[in-house]
Design goal:
Layout lengths: L3 H12 L7 E3 L1 H8 L3 H13 L3 E6 L2 E6 L1 H18 L6 E8 L4 H6 L2 H11 L8 E5 L1 H6 L9 E3 L2 E2 L4 E2 L2 E8 L2 E8 L8 E5 L4 H4 L7 E6 L9
Antiparallel strand pairs: 1-3, 2-3, 4-5, 4-12, 5-11, 6-9, 7-8, 9-10, 9-12, 10-11
Helix pairs in contact: 1-3, 2-3
Length: 228
């Protein structure tokens, strides 16, 4: 768990550009952003490196620094917490992103009877045999962890006699005026900035969507039958 000081240093590094690129800075220059002495600043940067929160290379005139995925994830969690503090509607969550082409896995799994029956019983609609894949924006990707706070429906894993299928969680949403659900399998190789949405209709046709189109999903504030 990073200390408060380490998080503050990560914020300062992000503000000078180390979030998305490598920046060159000396400890004496960076201390102007932290208010600490050059010696303390150098020590804290070394701690960030040892904690695998930044990549750092000492070069003539300073050091090359870029935040690691681990460091970026810490800042994303901070962003989520601040969003919760300042949000005027703490029980409301919108995720937005762009429609992208899927891998065809959604269509396969939605058609499996063991899943399909649970979707029908617990979500109260028969899903179209396919999913809408949405690549979340950077802001929504940071907020994705808040899904865990929203009303949800558990989909049980099962064995059909030949193989075992894992469970997952469904989060009821609205896409436009259409009732739908974000599906999050217990085991998935999809990146965290990609979500899959099931609905009783083909969303691409109903909403006239094509790859690259922006879409907003509105998570329901109120509970659902079968809520976990």
């Amino acid at each position: 768990m990073p200390t408060v000081t380490e998080i503050e240093y990560l914020k300062k590094l992000a503000l000078i550009g180390a979030l998305n690129k490598t920046v060159k800075v000396s400890s004496s220059e960076f201390r102007k952003h932290t208010g600490d002495s050059s010696k303390t600043t150098a020590r804290k940067l070394k701690q960030l490196e040892q904690g695998l929160l930044i990549d750092r290379e000492i070069v003539p005139g300073g050091q090359l620094i870029k935040m690691t995925e681990k460091g970026i994830e810490i800042l994303k969690n901070e962003y989520v917490e601040y969003s919760r503090i300042f949000s005027s509607e703490p029980d409301n969550l919108e995720l937005e992103g762009n429609v992208v082409k899927g891998l065809g896995e959604g269509q396969y799994y939605v058609n499996i009877p063991g899943y399909r029956k649970q979707f029908e019983d617990k979500l109260h609609f028969v899903p179209f045999p396919g999913t809408l894949n949405v690549q979340l924006s950077e802001r929504s990707s940071a907020l994705r962890n808040r899904l865990q706070e929203m009303p949800s429906v558990h989909i049980d894993g099962f064995n059909d006699g030949e193989r075992t299928f894992g469970g997952g969680i469904c989060y009821p949403v609205r896409v436009g005026d259409i009732e739908a659900a974000v599906v999050v399998p217990d085991r998935t190789h999809y990146p965290t900035d990609l979500i899959e949405i099931i609905a009783p209709v083909k969303l691409r046709d109903a909403l006239k969507l094509k790859d690259g189109d922006r879409i907003v999903t509105q998570l329901k504030k109120q509970g659902t039958e079968g809520q976990e």
